[in-house]
Amino acid sequence: MTEIKVAVLGAAGRMGTQTCAAVEAAGGLSLVARLDKDDVIDAGSLAGADVVVDFTIPATTEANVHAALDAGAHVVVGTTGWDDASRGRVAEHLERLNAARAGGSDQTPGLGVLIAPNFGLSAVLAMTFAAKAARYFESAEVIELHHPDKVDAPSGTARHTAAAISAARAEAGLAPSPDATETGWEARGADVDGVRVHAVRLRGLVAHEEILLGNPGEQLVIRQDSFDRSSFMPGVLVAVRAVVSRPGLTVGLEHVLDLA
Ligand SMILES: NC(=O)C1=CN([C@@H]2O[C@H](COP(=O)(O)OP(=O)(O)OC[C@H]3O[C@@H](n4cnc5c(N)ncnc54)[C@H](OP(=O)(O)O)[C@@H]3O)[C@@H](O)[C@H]2O)C=CC1
Ligand SMILES: O=C(O)C1=N[C@H](C(=O)O)C[C@H](O)C1
């Protein structure tokens, strides 16, 4: 593929605006469609896009992905709100479409969907380091801090981080983090796969995460800060270029960056 044609969903939003500008400025990519709320997503409105990038809202992102796939496009998703069930439905959709393609005369590679809870390199590295360190610590908690216009909590990044910590702890045979709390559970944050996650919303912030790992007499703190949404753009462009040759479902930019 010489030039990758890109359509952006949620194009008028905070991330969509920056994504359109980044695609327009990038070599080898061209922006062919900007869609937002109330725009129909089909082959016509996507204007021949090879890759659709979704930065919309949790309530609509899954439906957007199915519509983009039905229009024959690969999809990069930054929107939050995904769970095992919604990811499973997208994986099934991809299997069906790609099996039909393989059986036909069309020899183009299968379609791919890349869902990345966070495109920031500092965040992807923080999650990777946390997953690697988790097996060595008795206690693990996550604090995510965001701008107060964010509609969901805990953040998709914190959910992904907690899931990775939880999997590492389970593999190492660790017991649950010690916690003698008997009252006031509402002050202990959300339970995400057995890891406590605390969400802060504060004017002036963009997107930040701290992973606290504790042992008797010591603590490891892993912290990342996105001070500006420009921090997400290199990762978005990496994902757009990668998804066209990654058939099926990929969750997490760490797989594309060979960090997994
Ligand atoms: N993976 C990552 O690295 C990052 C992910 N995010 C995530 O991306 C998502 C978007 O964040 P952000 O840009 O800050 O949010 P915004 O609210 O600024 O943007 C969302 C945009 O989507 C539009 N929209 C709503 N419904 C639809 C629809 N059905 N079809 C198309 N567009 C629609 C909104 O329109 P209207 O305002 O008119 O409703 C708005 O323009 C969030 O889930 C956020 O958590 C954010 C930053 C980084
Ligand atoms: O809404 C945001 O701003 C962000 N959302 C993503 C999330 O929920 O993890 C990624 C980043 O934290 C910014």
TrEMBL record:
- EC number, as in UniProt: 1.17.1.8
Q: In which pathway does it act?
A: Amino-acid biosynthesis; L-lysine biosynthesis via DAP pathway; (S)-tetrahydrodipicolinate from L-aspartate: step 4/4
Q: What class of enzyme is it?
A: oxidoreductase
Task: Report domain Dihydrodipicolinate reductase N-terminal positions.
Answer: 4-96
The subcellular localization recorded is: Cytoplasm
The cross-references to SUPFAM superfamilies, in alphabetical order and at most eight, read:
Glyceraldehyde-3-phosphate dehydrogenase-like, C-terminal domain (SSF55347), NAD(P)-binding Rossmann-fold domains (SSF51735)
Which reaction is recorded as catalysed by this protein? (S)-2,3,4,5-tetrahydrodipicolinate + NADP(+) + H2O = (2S,4S)-4-hydroxy-2,3,4,5-tetrahydrodipicolinate + NADPH + H(+); (S)-2,3,4,5-tetrahydrodipicolinate + NAD(+) + H2O = (2S,4S)-4-hydroxy-2,3,4,5-tetrahydrodipicolinate + NADH + H(+)
What is its biological role?
A: Catalyzes the conversion of 4-hydroxy-tetrahydrodipicolinate (HTPA) to tetrahydrodipicolinate.
| UniProt xrefs under HAMAP family | DapB
Q: What is this protein called?
A: 4-hydroxy-tetrahydrodipicolinate reductase
Q: Which species is this record about?
A: Myceligenerans crystallogenes
